[in-house]
Structure formats: structure tokens, C-alpha cells
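Data availability excerpt. The first of two example chains:
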Amino acid sequence: MRLSEFWELADAVFGPDYSRVLARELALTSVQSLTPVEALEAGVRPRDVWDAWCDEMQLPVAARDGADRSRLVPPPR
């Protein structure tokens, strides 16, 4: 997953405004309690940050593609 895809998904799933707030403030327990922004800046792969974010928000796998069934988002590893 590219960084641009990461942000497109974040906006599609959480909304463009709320996704940015969450990305700056939500601590991801599976990524050393970093926020999504901090994790990306620390070099964590966008795919891994996305999985951690969705897990933290308890988002079902079926909802992780932003309701765009043409977008392929494989399940977490």
C-alpha cells in the first residue's frame, strides 16, 4: 500500500476531517502506542499502520475498503 492509498482509505472509512484527527491523536497499541502519523513518520509501512488503526477502531474486515468494493484491501496478516 502506498502512502497516498493509505490516506484515501482513511478519508473514505473515517471521513476526511475525522480521519486527520484520529491520525494525530489515536494511540495504536500494536504499534508501540504511536499515533498513525507518528508510526508513518517512524517508518512503519502504511499497510501495517492501516491494519493497526482498523484493529484499534474494531473495524470489521469488510468495512476496511471504504465501501469501495473495487478497491482490494487484503485482510490483515
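And the second chain:
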Amino acid sequence: MRIRIGIIAALAVAASGTLCSSGARAEEQGSFYAKWTDRRAGRSIYNRMVETIKDAKSLSFESDYVWRTADQELGHAIYRLWMKKPNFARLESRSADGAHAGIIVLDGRQLWTYWPSGRPPIPGPDTTLYAGTSMTSYMRKRAEKGTASLAHEVWSLGTGMSMTIFELSVFHGSADPMKEYVDGVIKTGEERVDGEDCDVVEVTYSKGERARIFWISKRDRLPRRLEETLHLKRDIITSEHWTNVVLNGRLTDDLFSWRPPDSWVELRVPTLEDGLLKPGAEAPDFDAALADGGRFRLSDNRGKFVWLFFWKIECPPCREEIPYLSELCRRYVGRDLVIIGFNSTDDAALAAEHARKRAFKFPVIIDPSPAGQAVSFEKYQTVKGMSAVPLNYIIDREGRVVDAWYGYRSGDDRGLRNLRRLGVAR
């Protein structure tokens, strides 16, 4: 109790300045109080926005979507979205030039994707197998309540979208994948957008490597503008402008119903996991320079177990896995285990600095050359155009794959279970 009273008292002093010995000190204390207030207000406003979306019975809006670097537009699309509880959605998108269009329909149990103006190139499928079906093909997948991610599906529409800024499927009960990486939330001001009085809230993630700004209407607690900046060698900036926002409006069920005509062909797109090497397969050899000097050749490590970890800077789960692997390195590397990181995506200097700041305890390869990229995107991920990180491989003493998987969450022990099975860990 004394701790809590002390904090409140300190804030009161900061606000009044009565115990400050100079005007400068009073200004400093007042600035501290203002920032504390802005953070508290920002968090409250942002949380109310998320809860409004979660609690809504229905939501619809139109968005102007643009993503770009400082000197290049990467995509520009217009999309219209309708969502209804418990598990219905329809998203119609078209490229800004009108050349391409795609539709996603979530009908309660399945998610359908099709292209009224013709299918764009999709990574993975055999083009000869689907020749002549661009106007008569579709994709589908099971999507029970809380399992779909509309944000991750829009890329397949081919209209110029990467991912939506906000995980729209929070509406249906899906988790916000970025929630655990939030650094802070702060209210930065107030502005009018399309006649709506809005609070401007900035959210930063993963030690400032990603930032989002929301212009949130005071009236209905929903955003009218959104902007995300991903800090890479060249910043990637995505913006959305929401209009025609309707909360809890009436939406008829037929909006969320679609079935392909009998003559249409189901496009079977390989999954990420389809591109992983199977247990027992020979792990492709490679020879690359280590970031701190020397070289690493996989075949030189026969007789040892190798944990190969593919990562990149802007990947939050990668950052979570690094200290986990560092701890495993400390505990087990003396037991014929080699842990090696591999980055072929980022600028070499930036990746080396990232590895230094995060104090990797295991050796790291940083090789964005064509040869390095071939290791990551051809040898160890075999479906062309489909890749992700973190990617983990465990390789046995004979150079054969024991296990391979994507992703990491705190408490994940899949790798450790493999090490125990191999006798490396207890």
C-alpha cells in the first residue's frame, strides 16, 4: 500500500511543482506527468477500440489501402468488408487501376477465395495443371470460429494488398498476433477525419521496430485512418482510410453464401509445411561465412546434431526464440549439439548489428547473396514463392532431417522434446 501511495504522491508533486527547486525542474516534472497521462489515455482509447470490434454484432466499411517505400508504391487497392457474428465475412477487393479483383467469403465453416476478373499468379501451383482455368478457379479452406485470419488471406486476391494493418478477424474471436509485442501506447493528439472527431493513438512494437497510428472516432470508437511503418533498410509504410463505417447494421445471410459453379476447378495451393524437408531426408549441404569470422559447412559437422534456425530482423517470434536458443546453447552445446542462425533476407550490416544488440550466444550466418538466399528459399523451403520465419530444422549426426517446423511461442518445447529423444537433453 505504501508503494502505491508513493507513486500517487510523486505524480501529484510532478503536477504541482511545489517541491521543485527551479522552474526547469517544474517543467520537467510537468512533462513527465503529461506523458504519463497520454500513455494512460492512449492505452484506454486503444483498448476500447479493440473491445468495440470484439463486441460488435456486425461491422462493415470500405478502405483505401496503399503500401509503399519512400520512393516506390508497392500496391494500391480498394476493399469493402462486411462481417457478422458468429463467423461470417465477405471481403471484396480491386486494384486501384481496376485491372484485378478478388473476393473472400467466410460462410461460417469454410473460407472461399475466387477472382471475378481472372486469377492472378499464385505461388506454388503447377501452372500446367491449372492452365486455362484463370476465370473458373477457386480456393477453399476450413475456417471454424476464431481460426481464420483475414489479414493473412488478402495477399491471395492479387489486387495489390499485402496484409491489412489491423487483424480484422479479432471480430470473430481470433487473437491479435501482435498483442504480446506491444512496447507502449500513447495518445499523440486529436484530429478530424471526414467530419469525425478522432483521438490519434500511436502503438509501438518490438522495441520500436514497428509502429502503428490509429485515428479513432470519439463517436463509435472505430478507426477512420490507420498507418503502419515497418523499419527496415527501406521503411515500408502501409496506410488505410476507412469510410462508410457501419457498426451493428443489418446484414443478410445471403451476403456470406457462395458456392462454385459445377464447371469450376478447385485450386489446391501447397501449404508452407508442404515445402519443408521430411524427416529422414538428407539435409542439403552449404558453406557460408560466419558473421564473427570463419566459415560454417554443414557437412563438417557430421557426428553432431545441428539446430538450424532461419530468422530475420522484423519477425517478432524470431526475437522471442533467440534468447530461448541462446539458453539451449549454454546448456547443451557441449553435448554434440551445434546451434546455427541463418539470415539471408536482411541487409548484412543491419542484421549483424541486430545480432550484436541481442547478444546471440550461438554463431550466425548472414548471407543475403543469391547463394545464401538459395539455401533459405530453395534448399530448405521447396515451394517456390512460399516462405516464412522463424524456421527450425534439427539435423542428426548423419546429416539427415529429424524434424522441421515454423514458428515459436514462449513455452514451446518441440525442439527440446526432439533433443531429449535424441539423448542430447534430459
